Amino acid sequence: MVPGRFGVVLPPAIPLPSDEQVARRLAQMLAHDSSQTGDNATTDRLMLMLTRSCELRCSYCFVDVTESGWREPHPGTLATSSLDQPPVGDLAEATARRAIDLLMSSPKPRLSIQLFGGEPTRRWDTVVLLLDYATSHRSRQGRELAIQLTTNGLGFDAGRLDELAAAGVVVQLSVDGAAHGNRFRRPHLTPQDDADTRWKAAVTALASGPARWFLNVTVPPAAAGELPNRYADARAMGAPALQLNYATGLRFSREQAQAYLRGLTGVLVDHARAPDLQLFNRQAAADPAPLCGDVLCDVDGTLLQVGGIFHEKRFPALRRAYVHGHVDTAERWVGHRATLAQLWERTRAALTEEETELFANGMAMGAASDLVARTVRALVG
Ligand code: SF4
Questions:
Q1: Among candidates 198, 220, 187, 199, which has minimal Cα distance to 65?
Q2: Hey, which of 62, 63, 186 would you mutate to test ligand 1's pocket, going by the most ligand atoms within 8 Å of its Cβ?
Q3: Could you tell me if 74 and 80 are in contact, meaning their C-beta atoms sit under 8 angstroms apart?
Q4: How far apart are the first and last CA of the chain?
Q5: Helices 158-166 and 192-208 meet at what angle, rounded to 10?
Q6: Of 65, 153, 236, 286, whose CB neighbour count within 10 A is largest?
Q7: How far is the CA of 120 from the centre of ligand 1 (A)?
Q8: Looking at ligand 1, which residue's alpha carbon is closest to its atom 6?
Q9: Domain carrying residue 345
């Protein structure tokens, strides 16, 4: 056993999955489709791109964030939608309402909305309007509606957190561990001390406030061995729940992949012994991250699967390949997403051989992470 920081232990006795096991698991995941959003799932999920503006420029982020068009609502009509270039501007209220109407036409018993960006709190006016519109929607018909806000935490104050808590919103706070990691990987548009002060204040306010929240941590290849430290950081911050992610669109070498998976194994084993927070990685069967099943409405009303946004600076061709229409012409929710297998076909048709190989590297990380979670659950509980 090798002790990590804060006493997290890495158990060498639990073997990592072989290449053959990973390939087999990936084929199963593609054949089964998304557990979260596929036809067999009980939930339909809509992501809303509120703005492309963001205070940060994270080194592993391939969303085309820009300050051009901030506070300028995009007209959001089919005539102005763009298939090949990320649109400029913010999501207009009317476009967002149409997207929510579409989600509400889903026949599923549970619905979910994720407010996303850029940094969605940069359009707090839209956040407030949409919370009211979605929660009181006439076609909701008493169905469970989970709303999540993905944020870097820089735009919070106590009043905003109270508003989110009152609407039952779950805050997904993205922080990369202690200040060093954030300074290194999350450069800020204004002085960095200001950013550090603000995300730390957000953690303090969330830890003592009424809003439900969890910490979202992304680890790029260069920091592949830091997973146990990020887990320890989350516990030290008092996070009630944690999601650990590998960065997509970046190549993990064999050594880096093994370091990540060993770290994940150690975290899962440690967590099984002392589960003082909820660790979402324990639940296997997540989508292989680059091929996420979620559907997103972009600021111009284009509907596309979210991998087209996650990778738009890395694989620009995926935008057109992942599009499923526009809110102006979509009459119902059903029919506006592809299965994971169909998405993989679209990916291979759109990317070069070299790009496809890089994309597949990320999918293999997802399948390997899933196998690690299953193995630890079987051996340790
Ligand atoms: S990862 Fe999030 S916080 Fe970082 S630049 Fe991208 S949108 Fe902004």
A1: 187
A2: 63
A3: yes
A4: 18
A5: 40
A6: 153
A7: 10
A8: 61
A9: 2-379
Q: How far is the CA of 174 from the centre of ligand 1 (A)?
A: 8
Q: How far apart are CA 328 and CA 88, in angstroms?
A: 18
- Give 205-256 pLDDT, tens digit per residue: 999 999 999 999 999 999 999 999 999 999 999 999 999 999 999 999 999 9
Tell which one of 49, 53, 61 to mutate to probe ligand 1, the residue whose CB is within 8 A of the most ligand atoms.
61
Q: Is the CB of 58 under 6 A from ligand 1?
A: yes
Which DSSP string do the residues of 98-162 spell out, in sequence order?
HHHHHHHT--SSEEEEEEEES-GGGGHHHHHHHHHHHHT-TT-TT-EEEEEEEE-STT--HHHHH
Residue 18 burial (CB < 10 Å; 0-12/13-18/19+)? Answer: exposed
Task: Please count the structural domains in the chain.
Answer: 1
- For ligand 1, whether the C-beta of 117 sits within 6 Å is yes
Single-letter code of the amino acid located at 87: P
What's the 20 CA to ligand 1 centre distance in angstroms? 34
What tens digit of pLDDT does each residue of 168-196 get?
999 999 988 666 666 666 666 667 678 88
CB 130 within 8 A of CB 163: no
